[in-house]
Design brief:
- Helix 1 crosses helix 9.
- The chain has nine helices and twelve strands.
- The protein folds into two domains: 105 residues, NAD(P)-binding Rossmann-like Domain (Rossmann fold); 180 residues, Rossmann fold (3-Layer(aba) Sandwich).
- It is an alpha/beta fold and 309 residues long.
- It starts with a strand and ends in a 15-residue tail after the last helix.
- It has a seven-stranded parallel beta sheet with strand order 8-7-6-9-10-11-12, sandwiched between helices. A five-stranded parallel beta sheet has the order 2-1-3-4-5, covered by helices on one side.
- It binds oxalic acid.
- The site of oxalic acid (OXD) has 5 residues, from loops.
Length: 309
């Protein structure tokens, strides 16, 4: 029984250390050094090259190294019938919440405007902005979206949420379906995208939907670049309908050096780091999933292939 690690961005030695501390005999291999293929039972993956998971006859678990699994389903050779699990990790969720709070407060307290004024040596006092002018809408009410919504609401913000299916969260008005989205957007000043990437959410935030936001609204995207039609967002910001955006994810990553987002005064770009997986935090879940699958049980947080999350 061996684990095959396939990721260019995660550190294999951190994973090896974290796994061996918990399970000293673990057989850990780093792609492309697969060794005897029939010995591989688990694949730990983040953006595996297409085909890397084929011809592994005893593969019984594909474990994402992140919360998202869209990177797995882009492989046209993905072995059907092998369970795919995503990570639901406290540390990852904590980072995503932290990033969202930072971005919401930056917008609420107009830090971009203040930084610009300070740069010009201007004593620029902004009158207090009430929560009624900073209504927050959270798209996606899974583990991460729900934690963001609750934390931002606990800070005093008026928070509404949106998801595919109906959800109930204390103190948070929840909407669902396309009609729900049409209700939420006009009542949102700060929109946070925490959606899974599926066929239904790909390019969901385009000119049509983003125009439903009120004037001077703000977008925070920490989910996937493909949720947003980048040129539409740019047009709406340049046309002064949307005030700005804080973006951690992009259609193409790394963001090309000549992309207009980089130099835009109203757009903050961060390099897909809102939530990074820490091996020491996530290793227990991975080992537990391996154990579950060995006993014939489904792994925790198994992905529904049809729904795509
Ligand atoms: C993830 C991510 O899916 O970091 O975990 O994007």
């Amino acid at each position: 029984m061996a684990i095959l690690f396939i990721s260019k961005s995660d550190n294999p030695s951190e994973w090896l250390t974290a796994l061996r501390e918990r399970s000293p005999d673990v057989d850990f291999r780093v792609w492309p050094n697969v060794g005897e293929k029939h010995q591989i039972t688990t694949a730990l993956v983040w953006k595996a090259p297409p085909g890397a998971l084929t011809n592994l006859p005893n593969l019984s678990l594909i474990q994402s190294l992140g919360a998202g699994i869209d990177h797995i389903y882009t492989d046209p050779h993905l072995p059907l019938g092998v369970p795919v699990a995503r990570l639901v990790d406290k540390e990852l969720t904590r980072q995503m919440v932290e990033y969202s709070v930072l971005a919401v407060l930056n917008r609420h307290r107009r830090m971009d405007e203040l930084r610009k004024a300070a740069h010009e040596h201007k004593w620029h006092v902004i009158q207090p902005i009430g929560f009624a002018q900073s209504r927050v809408g959270v798209l996606g009410l899974g583990e991460i979206g729900m934690s963001i919504a609750k934390t931002v609401s606990n800070l005093g913000f008026i928070v509404q949420g949106w998801s595919r299916t109906p959800k109930k969260i204390e103190h948070i008005k929840c909407h669902h379906g396309l009609d729900g989205l049409k209700t939420l957007l006009p009542a949102t000043d700060i929109l946070i995208c925490a959606l899974p990437l599926t066929k239904a959410t790909n390019r969901l935030l385009d000119k049509r939907t983003l125009s439903l936001l009120p004037r001077s609204s703000y977008l925070i995207n920490l989910a996937r670049g493909e949720h947003v039609v980048e040129n539409d967002l740019l047009d709406l910001i340049n046309g002064d309908h949307i005030a700005g955006a804080c973006l951690d994810v992009f259609e193409k990553e790394p963001l090309p050096t000549d992309h207009p987002f980089w130099n835009h005064p109203n757009i903050t770009v961060t390099p897909h780091l809102a939530g990074l997986t820490i091996a020491a935090s996530a290793a227990d879940q991975v080992l537990e999933n391996i154990r579950l699958v060995q006993t014939g049980a489904p792994p925790q947080h198994q992905v529904d292939r049809q729904q795509g999350y």
